[in-house]
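hey so i finally got around to running the thing on that chain from the lab meeting. sorry it took forever, my laptop kept dying and i had to restart like 3 times. anyway pasting the input first so we r on the same page abt which one it is
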Amino acid sequence: MAQGGASTELQSFKAEFFKALAHPLRIRILELLRGRERSVQELQAALDLDQPTVSSQLAVLRRTNVVGARKEGTTMRYTLRDPLVGDLLDVARRIFDNQLVGTQTMLRALRLEARRPRGR
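ok and heres what got predicted. didnt touch it at all, straight out
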């Protein structure tokens, strides 16, 4: 039974990780952090958002260990804790592209079907 508890704990950990990613602004922040470490001010400028908004989203990402921070003078600098998060974003983009291609194919088939004469 202990193994079931460990499995449940692992599933909860995974769910929390994906919940941290499940916000459009957090995805944008992660995409910006892929290239290099950035400060809140740099993220604010790139996202055209206020400091409290950016900081609250960074707090979620820090709590789940998706991003790390280090102090440089009076400035906090943020970075991806694991570059594989960037790979995960790439894989997700490929999945979305595949879904869109499938949807476009289905729409073309529906349009062709709608043009065919009915009856006969």
